[in-house]
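Below is how a single chain appears once it has passed through the pipeline. First comes the sequence as given, then the structure the pipeline wrote out for it. We keep one example in the README because the format questions we get most often are answered faster by looking than by reading.
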Amino acid sequence: MHRALNLFRTNIEESKNLTSLYDYLQSSLHSPLSFDDLLRAQIVYSVSAFDKLIHDIVRIGMVEIFTGRRQPTSKYLAESISISTYSELINATIPPQDYIFEQALFKKFKTVSYQEPTKVADGLSYVWDEKQKWQKIAAKMGIDDQTAKTRLKLIADRRNSIVHEADIDLSSNQKYSINRAECESITTFLYECGEAVVDLVALP
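Resulting structure:
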């Protein structure tokens, strides 16, 4: 899981490079062109980095349960697998069972999105039997749970506006405004949230 955290940190740092590029273009080019889409791209990449981290935590944690290194959660125990996967598992030698199990998880969760607070909490339930997940996460971040959940929901909504609606306000047919501070704040929040989740869920 610590490898997943390192990848998350790399992905966040790479997304922040877009702010550096934005700053350079803003200061170097005296042009009527807008470079705001670089900030929008950073938001998208930051959300993607967070989404992938939660996917990795869920997958790795479920494999840890499968191999006996982590205590099973009620959601994990209630999860079903296909008969074909079951047949592969009981007959497995090469590749080993944990590899087959992990590949089945890849297929099962590849269309799931972990961007909104309810989805994140639901995904973490596979590996973390904490009832008050957002209270614990928010406390690690130094904020209250309602603030954390609201913030993540608004970030997910903004990402969806950028990806699915070109960030256009339908009432004016103009793009919603964006600035560097807003973009940096979103990336920082996602980074701190991801760090808090790993700190709470990862095995020592």
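The two ends are 10 Å apart (CA to CA).

See the next section for the split statistics.
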